[in-house]
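Table S2 (continued). Query chain:
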Amino acid sequence: MIYELRTYTFIPGKQAQYLKLNAEVGRKVRGDKYGKFEGGWTTEFGTINQYVHLWGYADLEERNRLRAELAKNDEWTKGYIPQIRPLLLAQETKILSAVLPLQPPKDTGNIYELRWYRTQVGRAGEWLELFKAVMPTREKYMRRVGLWQTELGQLNEVVHLWVYRDLNERMTSRAKLGQDPEWQKFIGASAPLLAHMQAIALLPTPASPMA
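Corresponding output:
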């Protein structure tokens, strides 16, 4: 199983128009026939005017085949794409392999945090082994949705997605985690392996399977 994480950045003021077209046109045309739609979110903090969406495929071969089939769908290429293209400033994609299984939350009304860390060259595997070992400690305080490593895109990168009821829960959970001795040991061992860290807060769109 592989995942594709796509990020679209819009011309300021055009995000709402895109989301309306996506819900009313794009989702109806694409459905899950051309890859499984795992979730879609807008950025609340971080770089704004963005839409982040996650897709699942059996492998790269399936992704390539399904995207080729989608490109032959006139409703998509002639009906939908010409409407959304003028709204976009940039598109970015990452192909991810799962380090741990995807765990979509069963409840709704959540806020999500997407974090991506770039490690020192060749150190992603080492960092991930430390992270997986401390995961039971971290999951005492917060809910993991996904943990991946990039296969295509920025290399030496780890991507992880977390879910909270709201920003207050996030702040409280992270404060408690920071006091845990096991987590403090992990930070001491893992921090020297990292080169760069980023995070954004995400709100699910009405069409998102993860709400």
